Amino acid sequence: MAAHTLSGKKILLGVCGSIAAYKACDLTRHLRKLGAEVTVVLTSGGARFVSPLTFAALSAARVYGPMFDAQDAHTIPHINLGRDHDLILVAPATAQTIARFAGGLADDLLSTLVLAADCPVLVCPAMNSRMFTHPATQANLEKISAFGYQVVPPDSGPMACKEEGPGRLPELAVMVSAVEKVFTPQDLAGKRLLITAGPTEEPLDPVRYLSNRSSGKMGYALARAALRRGGQVVLVSGPCGLEPPPGLELVSVRTAREMYEAVLERFAEVDIVVKCAAVSDFRPARCAPVKLKKKGADLFLELAANEDILHTLGTRKQGQILVGFAAESQGHLAAGKEKLAAKNLDMIVINDIQGESTGFQADTNQVTILTREGAVQELPLLSKEETAMAIFDSVVALAGGGR
Ligand code: CTP
Prior knowledge:
This protein has helices spanning 23-33, 44-49, 52-59, 77-83, 95-103, 109-115, 129-133, 135-146, 172-182, 217-228, 256-267, 309-316, 332-342, 384-399, and strands at 10-15, 37-42, 87-93, 121-125, 150-151, 155-158, 164-168, 192-197, 202-203, 209-210, 232-237, 249-252, 272-275, 282-284, 303-305, 321-328, 347-352, 364-365, 367-371, 376-378, 382-383. By secondary structure, the protein is of the alpha/beta class. The protein folds into 2 domains: 10-182, Flavin prenyltransferase-like (Rossmann fold, 3-Layer(aba) Sandwich); 192-284 and 304-400, CoaB-like (Rossmann fold, 3-Layer(aba) Sandwich). It has an 8-stranded mixed beta sheet with strand order 12-11-8-13-16-17-19-20, with helices on both faces. Strands 2-1-3-4-5 form a 5-stranded parallel beta sheet, sandwiched between helices.
């Protein structure tokens, strides 16, 4: 199975003296879980909030302290640590440390490392909101951005100092996706994408509905992949209870009709549509206003056909790239080809829904990608994240093909 974006990446994590330093423990653990090697450098403030022992255990590596150590002198750590790493991530970064970076100071190991760095530097500020909004801090942030360091904006909300405002360390998922972005080509930058995901529910009465087994996992993986590649994403999602990734516009819908309206309303504004949702082809012709009672006899349901959303998009497209999915249980390639032509698509992703590792609920998938030009690409069994990345490799190749 292909590796995660962070697999084998060497990350130097600078931790400064903020109450948010405890969140760097979870960040260390999470980055390692994704395959990264993490080396922690503590400032003197950082070491007062969380002990080096904690980080040594979590990173399974030596932790570097605020000052230079005589026993390391021969390895020149302020140069070599930076040289040996793929990214310097500073989280939490305090006003003091940001001021050090902005001023080019080199009075502790972290600031010296950053000054000598030849790898990307990602800074996640965390501080009281008045400190954050102070013109001095804002000017320092502008300065370090001009140096090429990336700054992840802090969250707003209640803080440890009992004040509210911008200055909270961003959520773990936000920091991790910023790190993933550093290692991902931004080939969807400037592109607006509309992705649909999950099942739809077609109500029969106030408590019952018709639906299908779609988990939404593939569509959400596509949304994460598109964001990671720099795209602007609108996710139109049926009910699936998944946590949407940070940084996208989520439009929650229930029925195929609601999905139709949400998609059509936004179609003109987007460049790429990936229609991954498992839309119900039919709905009960009537939805009873009150719960249907059993009457001791069989009940016959009359079903009305839902609009085919993708087909409608195919008739209205004006330069957008249209990607459909085909959920098939037999005759995959032929059925996929037929759907691609019938719905006027640029690409179709054919999905075997019968395999145990490729079905609706699975975390893995095995798909065949078919383009309008007739190219056929059979992907191996991959995680849904990796499948999503491979789908966007093909989409980007199509988009670059003079469209
Ligand atoms: N689709 C859609 N609107 C519908 C039904 C399907 O937009 N009412 C889209 C799906 O999101 C998917 C593609 O069409 O991208 C193919 O869906 P699929 O269920 O495989 O095929 P259908 O067109 O419904 O054909 P069939 O059920 O006959 O296989």
